[in-house]
Hints:
The protein is an alpha/beta fold.
Amino acid sequence: MKNTRGSEWNRWDLHIHTASSYDSPYKGHDADELLCQALKNNEIRAVAITDHFKIDKARIEHLRELAPEIVFFPGVELRTDKGADNLHLIMIFSDKSNLDHLAGDFDAIMLRDKAKAADSNDTIFWLFEDIVEFCKKHDGLLSIHAGKKTNGLDKEISNALPVKQAIKVDIAKNVHFFEVGKKRDVEDYHKYVFKVIDEKPIILCSDCHDPREYTAKENLWIKANLTFEGLKQCIFQPAERVYVGTIPTALDRVNKNKKANIDRVSVRRITEPKNDGMSWFDFDIPLNNGLVAVIGNKGSGKSAFSDIVGQVCKCKTMESASFLNENRFRKMPKNLASDYIARIVWKDGHTEEKGLDVVEFETVIEDAQYLPQKYIEEVCNDIENVFQEEIDKVIFSYVDRTERGGASNLAELVQNKSQMLYIEMQGIQKEIEILNSQIIRLEKKKTSQYHSLVMDSLKKYEEVLERHEKNRPQEIKKPEEKGENIQYQEELKKINLEIGELNKKIDQTRDELTRINEAIIETEQVIAKVRAFKTEFSEMREMLSIYFEKYQLEVKDDDFYLRDPIAVIEEYKNKLIADKSIKLLTLNGSSIENGLVKNLEIAQDKKKELISTSDVEEKKYQKYLNDLQDWEKERQKIIGDKDKEECLTYFKYEEEYLEQSLEADYKKAREERAAKFKELFTLKQKIVSVYEEIYAPIEKEIIKLLGDLEETIEFEAEMQLADDNFAEKILSFISQKYAGVFKGKTEANNRMGKLIRKTEFSDETSVMELVNDIIVAVDEDIDNSEKKVVDKKEFYNYLYNLEYVGVSFKLRMGGRDLEELSPGERGIVLLIFYLALSQNSIPIIIDQPEDNLDNQSVYNKLVPCICAAKQKRQVIIVTHNPNIAVACDAEQIVCCRMDKNTHKITYTSGAIEDKEIKKNVIDILEGTMPAFDLRRRKYV
């Protein structure tokens, strides 16, 4: 029965002896029965009968009768003296060979004509060249013992002399298989030998001589049709087709996850179709677990096949389907799709059915990943959104689950890993804002206007003081005391003492009120901060409680507590408010009781009344004393002190500060700001490290996959200008009316463009240079800087807080950003992620991924990805490119044809080694023979 599922993994044994071998220890009449039973027990599906020096036609035919389900290849084991005395080779011939002719030729040519020392089985041997010639003429395959195997190439011929090494290389060129004795030999050959010669299949066989003791040191698995043509495919794709060990990875993957592998797909017409006379589909195709290549001429039903599989698998991308859409197979009024039901059977036996006209699925969970041609184009044209989302999903899948924490996607993971850095950055940004305010104050003092203000004010207050000094009240001598004025003088003295005491108390009370008001404001701020902290502490405690419980940490309640000071602080605030009320009452009094101010007014009125009773001289003297007191108050006001503006002392100190300390303070503040800027930049660079840590695993996979390709794919986490409106924002702060580097709108825009273009945003020095070049707008004309820069505080905060510098990753191919790639090149990047890097295990279906790609890109980039993907998941690809079907060694080819008269679409499937399938491949795929030849030249 023809195998339509394509190349499948089966256990083979390509070196078995029967009782026909001269050295067989068991020659009983049931030897063949015992051998067949042993092969069945070990699930061997294909065998090469390789008796010593003999092709026994009768025995091979008998074995085929006993076990028709097992394929028996005729073969023979020979001895050669090339480079050694006892080197063993095996010839294997097609199961379709004419045994009469083959055995007859062997006897006539090899035994009677070519054999050397033929007197004894222990001495007989053949020239290596004669063995090779016979094998070629009879379209056979040649295997040689190698590695640590007895009578093997490496055991019999040493590497001691260059001539010996040359003999081994010459032998290797003429054989097709290396048969080793241990699995370790397989690893050594890949590690050492295949660095010198082309890779060839390595097999490990039973070399069984006694059917009673059949044992295999290791399982030999071959992925091929159980035919000689299938065996030949091992030569072209040795790594793909041959496996020595318990079970091939791909087969093990299927056995462990049958629910993620489609076993077969079928479409039938419903019993009562809406459209008569049109039978488009009626097929039932078993699918291979590896790569299924769907091929056909234009309009033959290729995309229909992929759409049907995507439909039954409820794929989210069906709205991009090229066949099952409202403009084609679902076009009204016929809606041909409504006449058909598709069915998928999964490897675990689960069955799904879906009408081809169904648009809305009952679930959003898809059973396969489908990439229609239109979808690939749409994603590649939307690189900022869908494209990036798809890439991010794959990257996140490579992050070890132990490293993900609570993150459910890449953005959350980056945020979580960077959280502490962002908190630290916020603290530095606040410090920078404080420094900016300080620098702005200092810059104001650096202006010539401020210097003039200070000097003019100083001069003015000196003049005012000088004029005030000249305006001192003219002294009036105190009148002599008279006897009748004694009582007056005593009362006046008493009132003056009272007024002095009241003034003193009023000043003290007002000072106390000032301190109380300051304390109330500060206390209210503390209360607000404590309440905010309490809320944060409460959330923190709840979080820690969950954390301690989750990780079963023994923590006492008093290990993490907050002694709440709010009651004490509020009590103090209430006391301050009460004290303030008392002081105000003391100062201003009430309706019941006079305060100090009122008592002062009363005392001053009493004094006036008392003076009014005195004589003229006394009145003049008292007037003089009052004037002198007022004059002295005004004088002290003019002189002032260094902490009160608008006075002589303040401006004297300010003049001294401008001359002696301003520049040093300004320089120090800017240096501190620059240092904070560097700290901030360093923290952003640490976020780059976070990205690099996340991308490291997938980068390793890309290197492993694409190797040393010149145009490989690489990640680069970098700091970059994240604010697209950076130039616009900067220039919105700077007026272009004033002379300087940013004068004129056009010139300013051009200059900003140049500054941005020359800045390397991942380099701290370069970004600092950019900031300094922009700050020239202030430095070049400090006098007009307040006018030139509209809001200097916001301007400085924006420049130095570095919010415009973002951290992200860039995906590049061949050193070019995604934006610079053609749609086809973007498609390559996307497909590399979907095919080779995605860790999704569900089947993937792709419709013509090679469109917009040259053959070189398909061969160098797409082919390795497809080969990697089919090891991890079932891959179904619609293609018209021979490289995909042939170079990827598709396990199954599905050939599509449409009858243009009846519209019926039919599918033929099988392995690439199947002659009928190979003919279809060559007929359908333009350039396929060169692809076959290229592969043959590479391996043969």
